[in-house]
Design goal:
This protein is of the alpha+beta class. It is built from three helices and four strands.
Length: 87
Amino acid sequence: MFTYHARTRMQQRGIHPGIVGLIIDFGEEMLLTGGVSVHYLDKKSRRRLRQEYGDSLRVSEFRDVRVICKNGVALTVEHGFRRRREA
């Protein structure tokens, strides 16, 4: 489930909703303050994704994508070039 803001950001940044779903399902989760979580692909989760889907998925193209969620709803999607503080 996505907020209007998340859908807008995905469109602006060229990130497919299916990719966001894979990041949430296979990626690591970092908890932030206020019940917010960040989902991202680390080395281990990229390896699991390649084992599941093979090389056709081109995992390296979205390794820097982060999904910010709260209560199971994606609030926004961003390219993770900036570091965030953990809770």
